[in-house]
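Friendly challenge for the regulars: who can give me the C-alpha cells for this chain first? No prize, just bragging rights.
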Amino acid sequence: MTNSTTPAAEGQTNKSDPVILAHHEAQQMYFCPQTEELIFLADSEAGPFEQHWRDMLTRMDEYHQANGEYSSALEHYAQAYTQGNQPATELDKRLKAVDAAEQALQTKRDKLLEKLDKFSTEDMTYKDVVELLPIGDTRARYKSGSVKVKGATGRRYVYVKKKIFDDALEKKKLHPVALNGKKKGQGKSAGQKNKQQDLPKGGEESIYVTNSAGKSRIDKDKLAKQIKSLNLKEIKLELGDAARWFGLEKQLDWLERDASLFEWADTWNASPYIDVSAGAQFLRYAHNLGASVEFNPEKGQFAIKGEAKGSLTLASGFASFATYAPDRLGWSLAYQSNTGEKLDMGLLRLCLEGQVTGFIGASAQLEGQLQVVRQGDTQLIAGQPGGRLPRFRERQLKSKKPFHQRMDAQDEGLQVSGEVFVGAKAEGALKGSVQWMKPTPPAEIEAKLPGILQGGKNSGEFVDFCSISGSIAGLAGAGAGLTFHCTFLNGKFCFHFAASLCWGLGAKGGMVAEVGAANIVEFGAWLIYQLYQLDYSFLEIVAKEAFNTYSRYCLLRFQRSADEMYEIYKEAGDQVVDISRIFLKFIESLESQNRKDFEASKRRNELASSVVSRQQDLLRYTPEAKGILLYLLTRHGVWDHLDTENRGSGWVPDLYQERKEAVICVLRSIQTRSEWSKVLCRMTRDGSSLAQGGNEATVVAGQRQQLVDFLQEGFNRDTDLYKAERELAAIYDRIRTEVAWGYALAMNDSMYYQLNTGVNPNYPQRCTFGPCEAEGPRTA
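First reply, four minutes later:
Bragging rights claimed.
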C-alpha cells in the first residue's frame, strides 16, 4: 500500500447512516480559492497531508460537539432548577451532568488550541490555515443500496496549517499550478497572511468578478473556460517526471469530469460578497465548516452549535451570533462598598448578538474566556488566550467574594489597530443588553390568598436595563477604571462594567452600555431595587450626578412622555446645569403661591391627577423624588382655596380631595421605615435633606405634622384631623422594618406586600430564564 492509500478515515463514524469503512486513495489534487491555484501532491505526501487535515477537522468537530452537549446539559439543569419542586437528588444529578459536560468541553478545547497554537493579542491573529477544496474522485460511494462506504473525501472544505503547506512546498512535494493563466509566483502564495478583508479584485484572467452593484462573485463561465482550456499535456510536461512520480495521471484525467468546483461556485455566489483573506479562511474553519458542510448552492449558511447560537455566511467570511454571557442562568453578583457594606445585586447576564469577522471573530468562538477590545469609538469582544471561564458551580455561588469599585491595573483592556475591525461595522459588530433578574409579583397582586401564594411559580424574569452597541461614540470615557459604575454622560445614563464580572478573573477590558428611551423604565426599576436592597443607604455604584438626574427625570415625567423627556436630556447633553435649569423652571411653575398666579393651582391639580393615575410608577422613584412630590402637592394658597376644582367630586365638598389622594399614593409606595424617614426629610423643592447633625427623628416628626395639617384641610377640621392621623399611623405601622429581598416592590397596603417578608425562597430558583437559545438573527 502506498502512502496515498493510507486509510485516513479509519475509525470515523457517521451516526446518521450505516457505514462500511473502506480504504481509499488519498487525495492528491486540491483547489486553493485564495490563489486560484490547483495544488498537486506527491504520492508519498498525500497520505500524511490528508491525515493532517482530517485531524484538523476532527478536533474542531469534537469541540463543537462538546459545546453542543454542554449547552444541552445546561438546558436540562435549568428546566429542573426553574420548576422548584424537583427533589434535591434530581437537581444534583443534573448538576453533575453539567460538570461532566463542562469538563469534556474544556478537554476538547485544550486539544484543539494545542493544535492551533496560541492566539496573539499583539496582532489579534492565530497562525494561518490554508483553505482547500479536494478535486478528483470525491464522490461518496455506496454499496448494497443505501449503505454508505466511508472514506471518500466528499464535497467539502479542508484546512491545513500553513506551516505544513509551506514545508511540503519547500520539499518539492507540493506543486501549485495557476488556474487563472498567471505564471507561477505571480499571485499570492497560499495562506499568505492578510488580516484585512480580501475581496478578490478580479481581472481579465481571474474567476472573481464584481458586478455593477459592487457585489463580488465567481464567474462560472470563465471557470469552465479555464478548466477546459487547461493544457493537461503541458502541465504534465511542466511537471515532467514528477507527474509520474506524483502519481497524477489519473487525477489530471479526472479534472475534466469533476463538477465540485462549479458546486462550490454556486454556494459562494449565494453570499453577499466573497472574502478569501487569511482571517476569513480561519473564521470558516473555526465555525466547523469543514466537518459540518458539503457544497450546497441552496444554503449559503450553516448553524453554530453550543450556547452561542448563530450562522456563518460562507464566502463572505462573517458570522452572526447570539449568546448569553456567561450563560442563560446569569451570574450572581455582589458589591462591597468602601465602608465594607455588601450589596447583593442578584443575577445579571449579558445578552449579545451581532457580527464577527476574521481572526478576532474566530477567537470569540474558540477561547474559553472573552475580553473587550477597543479601537477608537468601537468596542468588540474577542477571545482571551489562556483564560478560563469560571466553572458553572462557581458562577452560581451567592457567597463568592464581592467585587470592589476600582478595576485592577492588569484588567485594563486592549486598544487595537483598525485592521482587526475591517469588515466589522460598528453598528453590526456588537449589540445587545445587560439584563437583571427582576423580581415580579403575581398577575393579580390584589388577588385572594391562594392566588398570591401561587405567584411563587414565577418569582422573577430577566429584563433589559441598558443596551450595548459596537459604537460608543461620546461615551468612551464613561466609568473608566471602575468595575461597575453608572454615570450620566452626553445626555444619557450609561454604564461601564469590567469584563471580569462576566467572564471571570483575568478577563481584560470593560464594556460600555447606555440607557435608551426603550429601557429607561427598567433602568429605574433596577436602580431603585438596588437602593431598596441597601435599605436606602448610599449607592456607590451610581454617580451622584446620575442619581440626582434620575430623580429629576422622575418628576419631569409628569409633564412629558418618557421618550420626550429623554430627548430633552439628550439635547442638554452632559450639561447638568441645563438639566437643573429645566427642572428648576418646572418646580417654580408648581410651587408658586402668588395671588396673581391662578394657573399654579391648576398645575398642582394636574400633578395630583397624574400621580393618582400613574401611582404604580412611584415604585420606581427615589426617596428624593417622592419627597419633592409631597412638597409640591402640599403647596397651597389663596387661589387654591378659591379654585372650584379643589372641592372634590362628591356631594359634600372636600377641599383638595385629589391632592390628598395623591399624597396618600406617595406614602403607600414607601417600602421600609428607613425610606419613610428619608422621604419625609426630603420634602423640599430640590430633594435635599432637612436632617442635619443627627436630628432626623425631629425632622421626621415635624414633616409628618405638616402632612397631617394638609390632610385635615376642609370644612370639618376636627373630624378630618382624626382621620388624617389615623391614616398616617396605619400606613406607618404596616411598613416593614427590614427589606424583603427577592420580592417585587408593591404598594404597602396590598395583600402581596403584607404577606411576603424576609428572603424570598423562590428567588431565583422559580424564575423565568427566557428561551433555551438566545434570541438573535439566524442569517447575516
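The mean pLDDT is 78. Residues 178 and 184 are 6 Å apart (CA to CA). Your move, everyone else.
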